[in-house]
């Protein structure tokens, strides 16, 4: 685990440009990359020292003060998760869209079952348990007269995230036997904002968290409690949560497996535990079996079944691509096959071919890239989870996922590095028996996560279920450093002061060197004010050859100067001869932009047709707009215009029509404000640097022992 964390640390430092905006565009030479990578490394060290300083403050709190502080942290965290659901109410996309569209339909009564013959659920039945869970929640909401079911789902997700934090808090506090440890754990979670920004992404990666937290707390209870009643109750809960959680997202079972391994190891070491361990395993197995039968019966009741589900090896094959991420070509191949057996044969062929293309060196490189794709990105790609909220654009949008978001991403990358540094320290101390043996439970769980994603398809957000474990170990690692430093002699303290001062001074030098990145790099950047993502992948065809007219209405109160229409280009685009006229009208039915599109002007396969406004348009309040695509002429079509629709979810307000006939759904479009600018103005950059220096000075006073009197409260 220590080796894997070291590999991840290297990826955290050097992976950032790929996921940035300004930095990915400007970091083209070695000098610029050196500055960026060094800044992340130095920033990670500075944040680590700041965390240790905050830990020291927590240690000085009285018992009453600690309780008030912890409650305040929970309140802030809970308010933040709920606030995100209202500030950024995301439009579901991809798998999340299908799940919610089905659950909402079942709650409204427009659908009775999950149809295994439909295009999506014929292939993907893994999300059925989540659909059934949301259906029950939405059904209750409908009975109470609540109509905005998507918001109900977001609030439920907020409760899952906050509730799991509470469960982990009690588990870690119980295992560490220190009240301060729990408070420090909650503080680090509050500082690590990407999980909070995931609140509006209602999907299995966050819904599974309470199951993991519940298993963790019950495991802690089993370790600390000796009564038979407690053993039976907690073992039963673990059995239920393991199976139900596994059905929501399989990674839940990794913690249960890690717990079983720990139980076996501890029982072998101490034979007196055998009876207690046998009772735990027996009770857990009985309730797990009961949960398995119940969940299977529920699935059979609400799902018609399918002989065309993707086999598990499908995701293994996708995991063998260069970066281990989603492989659309393999998905298309399997979608064309008639049953699971044919898919298995096709997938096995791909697995053999892909493995044969690797030698020892290239396979190690593949695993390194794959490791970085899931574990090395501190933002957890929260931006893509917020981008669907562009219909409700706020001033914060620019800083969280828009043109200024690099600052937030840089912060999360540095903090992610800091958490892994502290986690590595914890693992090293665990190796030398300086930490409680119960830490093995967290280490094995994280190791299981790493092992699982070595063979499975990866996605940046797939790290979400393991964040609490990383932060938990980072908390304990921080306490290890803190306690060791507190007991050190004056000579060691002076070495620490000199080292920290050197890092702080070097960071100031980096601020001067990095000023051009923030203030001089004037780039053309985009702020998305409204967007409709591809979900059901529907197409409007033969617009030019049949001279059709397609209109889409949308509403916005934000200024913009670009509208992009997402299209699927034909295979021989250069030989197409179709022409289109695109017109945009405002709420007063006045034309504000128009464009003639001739397919001969497009020599490459493109994904968007751009409509450029002569100047930036500022709506008068929330204004209604209408974009029209009219086919002019052509004997060979160039583009199929994509639109997204659900049976019970309408992506955005505004109707879509073809030749005046209403079409269910909305064109896949993006309304943006394109402008030139730097990441920060010189004045803001100066204020930014002053703020960092102040944090460094405060950290020095908090942790480096300038105060002679020390008090530690356990």
Description:
- With 714 residues, the protein is α+β, with helices and mostly antiparallel strands.
- It has helices at residues 2-14, 22-26, 30-59, 63-87, 94-108, 128-143, 149-176, 179-191, 194-197, 204-207, 209-224, 228-248, 252-269, 274-302, 313-318, 328-336, 340-356, 360-375, 382-386, 397-400, 406-431, 440-455, 467-486, 490-519, 682-703; strands spanning 523-531, 538-540, 549-556, 560-569, 579-585, 591-598, 608-617, 623-633, 639-644, 656-658, 661-663, 666-667, 669-677.
- The strands form 2 sheets. Strands 1, 2, 4, 7, 9, 12 and 13 form a 7-stranded antiparallel β-sheet that branches.
- A hairpin with a 2-residue loop joins strand 10 and strand 11 (661-663).
- The longest helix has 30 residues, at 30-59.
- The chain is globular and about 80 Å long.
- The two termini are 29 Å apart.
- This is Glycosyltransferase RgtA/B/C/D-like domain-containing protein.
- Keywords: Membrane, Transmembrane, Transmembrane helix.
- The chain crosses the membrane at residues 33-54, 66-88, 155-172, 192-223, 235-268, 274-293, 414-432, 438-455, 460-478, 498-519, 685-706.
- It comes from Ruminococcoides intestinihominis.
């Amino acid at each position: 685990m220590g080796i894997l964390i070291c590999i991840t640390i290297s990826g955290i430092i050097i992976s950032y440009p790929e996921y940035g905006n300004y930095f990915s565009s400007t970091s083209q030479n070695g000098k610029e990359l050196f500055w960026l990578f060094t800044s992340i490394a130095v920033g990670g060290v500075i944040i680590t020292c700041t965390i240790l300083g905050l830990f020291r403050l927590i240690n000085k709190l009285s018992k009453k003060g600690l309780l008030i502080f912890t409650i305040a942290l929970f309140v802030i965290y809970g308010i933040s998760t709920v606030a995100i659901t209202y500030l950024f109410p995301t439009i579901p996309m991809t798998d999340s869209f299908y799940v919610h569209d089905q659950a909402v339909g079942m709650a409204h009564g427009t659908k009775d079952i999950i149809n295994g013959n439909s295009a999506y659920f014929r292939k993907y039945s893994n999300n059925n348990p989540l659909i059934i869970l949301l259906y029950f929640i939405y059904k209750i909401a409908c009975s109470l007269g609540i109509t905005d079911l998507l918001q109900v789902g977001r609030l439920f997700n907020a409760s899952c995230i906050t509730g799991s934090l509470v469960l982990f808090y009690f588990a870690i506090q119980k295992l560490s036997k220190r009240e301060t440890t729990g408070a420090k754990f909650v503080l680090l979670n509050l500082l690590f904002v990407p999980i909070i920004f995931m609140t509006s992404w209602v999907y299995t990666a966050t819904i599974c968290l309470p199951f993991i937290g519940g298993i963790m707390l019950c495991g802690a209870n089993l370790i600390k409690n000796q009564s038979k009643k407690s053993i039976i109750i907690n073992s039963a809960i673990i059995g239920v949560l393991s199976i139900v959680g596994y059905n929501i997202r399989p990674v839940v079972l990794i913690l249960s497996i890690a717990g079983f391994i720990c139980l076996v190891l501890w029982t072998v070491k101490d034979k007196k535990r055998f009876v207690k361990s046998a009772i735990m395993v027996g009770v857990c197995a009985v309730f797990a079996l009961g949960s398995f039968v119940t969940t299977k019966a529920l699935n059979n009741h609400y799902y018609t079944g399918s002989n065309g589900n993707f086999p598990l090896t499908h995701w293994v094959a996708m995991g063998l691509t260069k970066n281990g991420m989603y492989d659309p070509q393999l998905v298309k191949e399997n979608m064309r096959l008639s049953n699971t057996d044919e898919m298995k044969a096709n997938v096995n062929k791909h697995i053999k071919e892909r493995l044969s293309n690797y030698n020892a060196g290239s396979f190690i490189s593949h695993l390194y890239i794959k490791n970085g794709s899931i574990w090395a990105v501190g933002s957890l790609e929260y931006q893509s989870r917020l981008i669907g909220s562009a219909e409700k654009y706020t001033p914060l949008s620019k800083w969280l996922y828009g043109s200024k978001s690099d600052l937030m991403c840089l912060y999360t990358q540095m903090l992610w590095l800091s958490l892994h540094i502290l986690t590595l320290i914890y693992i090293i101390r665990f190796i030398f028996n300086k930490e409680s043996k119960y830490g093995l439970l967290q280490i094995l769980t994280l190791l299981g996560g790493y092992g699982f994603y070595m063979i499975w398809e990866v996605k940046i957000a797939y790290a979400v279920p393991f964040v609490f474990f990383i932060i938990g170990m980072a908390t304990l690692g921080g306490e290890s450093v803190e306690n060791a430093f507190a007991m050190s002699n004056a000579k060691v303290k002076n070495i620490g002061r000199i080292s920290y001062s050197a890092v702080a001074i070097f960071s100031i030098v980096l601020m001067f060197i990095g000023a051009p990145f923030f203030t001089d790099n004037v780039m053309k950047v985009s702020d998305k004010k409204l967007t409709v993502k591809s979900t059901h992948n529907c197409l409007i065809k033969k617009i030019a050859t049949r001279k059709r007219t397609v209109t889409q209405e949308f509403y916005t109160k934000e200024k913009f100067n670009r509208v992009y229409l997402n299209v699927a280009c034909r295979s021989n685009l250069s030989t197409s001869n179709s022409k289109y006229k695109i017109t945009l009208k405002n709420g007063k039915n006045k034309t504000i932009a128009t464009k003639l599109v001739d397919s001969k002007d497009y020599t490459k396969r493109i994904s968007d047709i751009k409509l450029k406004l002569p100047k930036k348009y500022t709506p008068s309040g929330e204004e209604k707009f209408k974009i029209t695509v009219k086919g002019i002429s052509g004997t060979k079509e160039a583009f199929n215009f994509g639109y997204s629709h659900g049976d019970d979810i309408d992506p955005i307000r505004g109707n879509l029509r073809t030749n005046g006939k209403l079409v269910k759904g909305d064109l896949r479009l993006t309304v943006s404000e394109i402008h030139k600018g730097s990441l920060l103005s010189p004045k803001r950059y100066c204020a930014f640097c002053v703020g960092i220096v102040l944090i460094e000075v405060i950290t020095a006073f908090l942790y480096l022992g300038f105060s002679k009197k020390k008090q530690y409260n356990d």
